Sequence to fold (403 residues):
Amino acid sequence: MQFESLDIIEPILKSLKEEGYTTPTPIQVQAIPIVLKGTDLIGCAQTGTGKTAAFAVPVLQLLSNNKSFERKRKIRSLVVTPTRELAIQIEESFKAYGRYTGITCTVVFGGVNKNPQTNALRNGVDVLVATPGRLLDLMNQGYISLKDVGIFVLDEADRMLDMGFIHDVRKIIAALPQKRQSLFFSATMPPEIVKLAGSIVYKPVKVEVTPSATTVDIVNQSVYFIDKGNKNALLLELLNDKKIKTALVFTRTKFGADKVVKVLKKKNITAEAIHGNKTQNARQRALSNFKSQATRVLVATDIAARGIDVEDLEYVINYEIPNIPETYVHRIGRTGRAGADGTAISFCDAEEKPYLKDIEKLITKKIRVVNDNPFPLIDNNPVKAPGQQHRNNHSRVESHRGR
Ligand code: AMP
Fold:
């Protein structure tokens, strides 16, 4: 499939070629025709799938086909995204793909002086990319009107919720015209997100992409059954292996991520945490240290890991098993890219067994259990509902249930 077969106009095709894109990604193949038809969309896709172009390209095309000849441009498309980093990336994408269309784009985000942003807005702009807080601020001060927005994009909705922006998002939606096209993107679709989507989109078409099954298939996956209290010791034991040059370790909580970093640092293993409590700069720094291998272990929560794209990442360690099975696929999809060998090791305690079962159901295969386990789980209740109290009975060594 080529971009040409998606009926993309020449000026945009030309810029895509210049960007070095030859074939559209799966989310682009699915989303671009829907958006071009003017239909509302729910896109379930994470960063790294090419989702920005999946909405930016058709939005540019729709605006370009319907040029405004007014002296001062009005905001005809609004993209709201949770972080400044994403906002900047999205603006850059619109500028790159739209460079031959004459469509203009600007970005507003918090934490910096407003003047350059208000100056850019004063001249009028077709596409505005914004983070929620600064957008509301500038709306309240009269710098921004949303009454001409015909296409609204909400990006990374689940992260928006996680970062506490839900009230801001609702206020923004209330200021949009009723009659509009809405594109709603989220990496995950828990019930609150489905509800939020329902309040934004009208007769939407849903498209969904997860890292492809083949990516998951080529990753060497294994699981250690282990007591919660032994997870640090097992992590240190594994990291004794110098073959592991770098590893991305996932924890479920920010607090957990910081605790793991502390343990590793104590043993002189270079480690940094990346999560929502860190400033954008601190996250960026941690990521570049990890990419340059100055930091051996990056400990991340799922939300913060969104957008992390490290070439040649060989090891992903699930210190905790995610309770949403798709999250496991997203996590391990970060390794084994482009045919490289990837290894994903999971630590599963008694309470996490049901999560593991859900994952195995989703990936339709059993994950290999490591029998050579220095800290075998001692448990006589192999599968329990999550959160249920677990009582130890030292009658059976769980790890020897090996397959
Ligand atoms: P995104 O998921 O939008 O953050 O995009 C991830 C990366 O893929 C970005 O660096 C894009 O420039 C790149 N990209 C997006 N679409 C394509 C494509 N069709 N071909 C090659 N690279 C792409």
